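Figure S7 source data.
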Amino acid sequence: MWIDGEEVESPSGEQMPVLDPATEEPVDSVPKGTRDDARRAIDAAEDAFERGKWSDPYDSRERGRILARFVELVRNQEDSLSVLLTREHGKVLSESVSEIRSLENTFEYYAGFGGKIFGSITYTRYGKDPLELKVARKPIGVCASIVPFNFPISLFAWKVAPALIAGNCVVVKPASTTPLTEIMMVRLLAKAGVPKGVINLVTGPGGTIGEELVTNRKVAKVAFTGSTETGKRILQLASNSIKKVTLELGGSDPAIVMGSADIESAASALFTGRFRNTGQACNAVKRVFVEKSVGEKLTARLSQLIAEVRLGPGLDRSSTMGPLNSAEQLRIVESMVEDAKARKAKVLAGGSRPVNIKKGFFYQPTLLTDVNDDARILNEECFGPALPVVEVEDLGEAIEKANMTRYGLGASIWTKDEGERRRAENEMKAGMLFVNYRPFSTPEAPFGGVKDSGLGRELGFEGLNEYLETVSIRTYMG
Ligand code: NAD
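Tokens for the predicted nicotinamide-adenine-dinucleotide complex:
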């Protein structure tokens, strides 16, 4: 763990193993932190915020320089960081490289806000009295970053970069199965010049470390990415001390493919959108609704693309898809596919664990059609490599089915028809819409969902705003 500028063990002495999902062998272990460890990290962050120089408004550009230096340090170690990420997560090396680059991208974007966070001044009369009205944008204080397992490094960046550039101090809690590369990132932040106490990291179970971060009164903001169930618990717990909360939660993103669409591009985007990261992406394409006239053409092309997948360990450069991150994730995905099969879904590809791989949490990329409306895979979040394709009569039916779940993270539409595009923009219930393009994120565009998919936004200026307090100062000028 990293507390107050030092690498520390937990006084509890307990360790948690981190497994390689491709071999089920341990990669390393991390301390099983306790509530006391979380409190020490929070106290260090509070001390740095109250007494250190990090939050000094005059040092905003210096913060930007330090974040830019961090990006250079990460760039110089891309290879070793990517290998570590693959070993703890399972994703194939090329995906680890792109995730490390996405962290660089996000930090570079927010480093650019150094010296550019400003408020406003205006003047008025209150009755006859002249008044100056100043609006200042201030850092909030101690921010907790609770990170999930699926994109540990990208999502670390989405939280830590805006928090730091705004002048806050941070305590990070990684997911228990993927803490190692985040620990390296924290070391590199310190090396780049982030002062002691400004960035801290504690490892341990969500139920103890995580809940201390959420309930502790010294924490001013919690940024959480994870499942909707945990998100709801966090919102309840956080209400005891009225703190800012952003929740980036689960999704079951629909993609609509209309008859006019370019089916070749749609198929390749849906394939990447569903199967990258072994299907473990919040905004992955999780349900497809295709106009009947082009249904077969689409599934035929998807089947071809799936047949080309080379399932294997992420470190093997010939693999194009790695294992799931844990035995638990594998079990959940498998049970959802079995449920669809039991309801008479047709399996066009995959549909089971691979028979030729004996170790690791592997599942075959799976394509399902004729899926019953009640199947779990059409109603819950499927966080793995299985894609249900449902044929529909028209756009109206597609939108109705797309909006049917409790989620509302992203959605996409494939069409060349301007009217259909506009109707989707107006009627799809999602925080993000992708038109004739695969789901992706970029630091410039706010990311987040509606309904049970979350609260608040990350990335973009909106993402920075979540780490700033607006204070208005009203001065009598008579
Ligand atoms: P999770 O909810 O199990 O855990 C997320 C983090 O919360 C982990 O660090 C965990 O240790 C911690 N945690 C668990 N219980 C806690 C508690 N009671 N209090 C505080 N912290 C606690 O999620 P996961 O399985 O790691 O991640 C997968 C989920 O994340 C999926 O549902 C996925 O859709 C979602 N996700 C959402 C986005 C988004 O931007 N909307 C992005 C990525 C992942």
